């Protein structure tokens, strides 16, 4: 018995890690993103009304990587005045999804299959930057990790949340 | 743009759930909640601005259990017009957190430590009901499960998301 | 060396589960499994050397459901004499995977994509029963939940671990 | 209302991240581990019979970091001859737990609360190296990430699994 060649092919796309440790990168984070892909990801972001509602902004895109920002707003809090886990999750799920979209073929769209989020510190800061990174890009499934940094008024940063996510490439048939 | 028919077909295979809730129950789901705890949980819900922003409503509370509702809104969507995973997560994280709060001592408040969410079908329906249940109540950590059901215009229900969460009881010192 | 009494006390608060299994059922848990599928799943279990090494036994199969058992062994422990999280995970991942396999077409095999495990009480008992249930069966991806019950010498049961898992149907080309 | 000081204190222990991206480090990975802690972690590893059964070896320890190795064995496989997810999880859960133990006070022991594992490629290689890293060290809860690399006969490495885990510091009262 052998496995589905799709699955095995996808495994072969996995590049050798640059080093051991938590800094496993999909590929050069300094790589320049194809302008067609860049426009495509920006159009997807613009088409998500939830992101407009939360005023989430795109900070940067690179192959296998996306950075987004959420500013503190009084109407996005939980009972202690921290930014709600749901808003933080929206931010980092989006960063991971767009990171995945940068490495997908143009005829594929992204859907989140599942994610795990650890809320490691209270989200007390003035703004939040989420970084999504592709760690493994398969033909059907792509695994990402995300970090959310709270940025205080003095510019200092602290990790407030971590995500591990599985994304799926789905076919976009037509409009 | 439409989705991969495979994805949509697969969603249709999802059978209607036999009942809401989780089969491993913390305690009698018919148990009556102490009115003091009931008022306390409702006050916590009212103090979360994120829930007001999303117009999330409380449907019911019982010992170790909370049900919340989110109505579809055009400003809470992702790129295909489904309700965004971040809004669904806000809903079910809240249901799990309030379920935990119903079994905490009155001098403890709840914080989410971490959760895992599976988005099992597109959130295409008119409204969404999340049920959070306490499966294990420890002194410091409490484990919950949540389900989100999409409710169509004809009243039929379909599971769209599942959560497994760890909640922490923290001391509320004073105001 | 003994554990923090807080941790142990908390475990004792865990009520006996009312029944095995998950409240959101894929289909009738009393449904009879097709004998061809039954033989196929049993053959897969027999072909997994890790399960033989841990002496994991099949207790039962039904459509969308599998039950497995692991007996305490002195060589499967962590530092406090509890059964190791890795052995518990092996047990419940297998229960979820075989539950998925009962609902897959015969030309598809199962691979675990990802899972989240909560270790809700110390695995101190004499044996452990894992129940895996399919909650959502898609064409490519299937979502399962699992519970592990520790069974004491007097037959009483306590939940010790919970799993939420995503499984993938892969093509088996030939032998 | 204010939060439990313990929780807030713990948040303050979180060091500034060295850089954005997936390489969030707890502290200098080149830091030298206190010999007392080193002996203590090695003693804990030696006391886990599950690790002896799987012949898991310690490769290295540093503050907030542990590396372990598992060699392929024919009796640790699943149905395709890949190393079983349960064995891979045992390896990386251990790496994360021992990473946590390197940063705990000597009167605290470690228990796994929960983890999420993504199996990103088939575990086909000759041996497997797991690296566990502490990303956030609180007074009660510690968040770790782990990676498992499959190492082929020619020495090339490929990521096969990723973990995100929550660990708990528990009091060890006496022997």
TrEMBL record, chains A, B, C, D:
CDD domains: PaaI_thioesterase. SUPFAM superfamilies: Thioesterase/thiol ester dehydrase-isomerase. It comes from the Bacteria. Keywords: Hydrolase. Residues 80-149 form the Thioesterase domain. Residues 1-27 are annotated as: Disordered. InterPro entries: ACOT13, HotDog_dom_sf, PAAI_dom, Thioestr_dom. Belongs to the thioesterase PaaI family. This is PaaI family thioesterase.
